[in-house]
Design a protein that fits this description.
By secondary structure, this protein is an alpha/beta fold. The protein has helices at 31-35, 76-79, 83-92, 94-103, 115-131, 152-161, 178-183, 194-202, 238-246, 248-257, 269-283, 303-317, 333-339, 349-357; strands at residues 56-57, 60-61, 70-75, 80-81, 110-111, 139-145, 168-171, 186-191, 207-211, 224-228, 293-299, 323-326, 343-346, 362-364.
């Protein structure tokens, strides 16, 4: 099985709108400045579907400030399925595409690979609001899209149809959204565009390219489950570089010699940290055993020969995962099928493909030395 990183759904490719010559997002732009560029459209009510219930407080609807929230930016192409619309764009061009979207703006899009993840985030928010009514430490979801603002009505109608609570939009009309992500204080960016994901990672923003399996398995609606690979995801690719350059024996020797030396951080360490901060809010109220957030470390490292360094690093960071699976090179897909995460992050497409084959929604983190050495079947992996 081979997955094209921009083909999140079967038959879907990236919408190749040309960016404008001027930058649309200096990384130092303030929240107030970026807000003027990000459209909040007052939509038509959809013809069908439940009415969303926003949380209201005295003076209006409650929205956390981005700097206080855990901000998740998702592209429209991973939140919803848009293959038919993409085909119109590719075959007939942008004007016919926009016309088609307006003509069908009361027809909601079907859920995409990020949809269950977003629903789980909202379930966690509901629990947090019960325990901490005035806290702004919540998940805040921002819809980020290359689409023209005219497509916003259909997107908002779709959000209303599916009863999602997403009020913050960036519709960039074909230009790159990356500059806005820092202004939103983004903790995680999920996209179908591998190049934009790499651009976000280069800016220090946790990001991944999402994939949706043909086979889908039932996942929890009340507990958010997030699974992480170790090296080049939570940790740096330092150890993976040793393995690639010198082989497995040298890797084990390196890990034994550096058992008490902390690994450097990887691109998604900050996101695990944000999840852990919210978990502790539940623990403080006596909800450790029924916490609606559960995290997993799923690594090809061996426990006795190389796992202790990973665990000591997490402990030193003040972080933990609820479960740690050291697979010693065994396939990850069967374990992930049992975990049933809303999202699994890995830096190697080989493992992403294996997860997708077993029905797991997986996301590729294009970071580290493994991007230069595609995995070959039959080759063991240190991580």
């Amino acid at each position: 099985m081979s997955l094209d990183p921009v083909q999140v759904m079967k038959g879907q490719e990236h919408m190749a709108l040309s960016p404008s010559p001027a930058s649309n997002g200096d990384s130092k732009v303030s929240w107030e400045e970026s807000d003027s560029f990000c459209d909040s459209v007052n939509p038509k009510k959809p013809k069908s579907g439940p009415v969303r219930r926003a949380r209201k407080v005295e003076g209006g609807i409650f929205f956390p400030k981005p700097e206080n929230a855990v901000t998740i930016a998702v592209s429209s192409r991973v939140l919803f399925r848009t293959e038919k619309e993409q085909k119109v764009f590719e075959e007939k061009g942008v004007e016919e595409y926009l016309k088609y979207q307006i003509e069908h703006e009361n027809e909601p899009f079907a859920p995409g690979p990020a949809f269950p993840f977003v629903k789980a985030l909202e379930a966690v928010n509901a629990r947090l609001r019960e325990l901490y009514p005035d806290s702004e430490e919540l998940f805040d979801i921002v819809l980020v899209t290359y689409n023209h603002a005219n497509v916003g009505v259909r997107l908002i109608n779709t959000i209303n149809h599916h009863n999602l609570f997403i009020e913050r939009f960036c519709m960039t009309g074909g230009s790159s959204p990356i500059g806005y992500l820092k202004a939103w204080h983004t903790n995680l960016y999920l996209s179908a565009d591998a190049e934009k994901v790499q651009e976000a990672l280069a800016e220090g923003i946790a990001a991944a390219t999402m994939f949706m399996p043909e086979k889908q398995i039932e996942i929890s609606e009340t507990q958010l489950r997030v699974a992480f690979d170790g090296d080049a995801v939570l940790f740096s690719d330092e150890s993976e570089r040793i393995f690639k350059a010198h082989g497995l024996d040298k890797f084990f020797e390196h890990e034994r010699e550096n058992e008490n030396t902390l690994l450097d951080h990887g691109p998604l360490k900050g996101f695990l940290e944000a999840l852990g901060k919210l978990q502790k809010k539940f623990y403080a109220k006596g909800h450790r055993l029924d916490c609606p957030i559960r995290t997993y470390l799923v690594t090809a490292r061996s426990a006795a020969s190389s796992g202790i360094r990973a665990l000591k690093t997490l402990r030193a960071w003040g972080l933990e995962t609820d479960e740690a699976l050291f697979l010693a090179g065994a396939p990850k897909g069967p374990m992930l099928e049992k975990i049933r995460p809303h999202i699994y992050f890995d830096d190697q497409m080989f493992h992403v493909e294996g997860a997708v084959e077993m029905g797991t929604i997986a996301a590729h983190v294009p970071y580290g030395i493994a991007q230069k050495y595609p995995h070959k079947k039959g080759t063991n992996s240190a991580k």
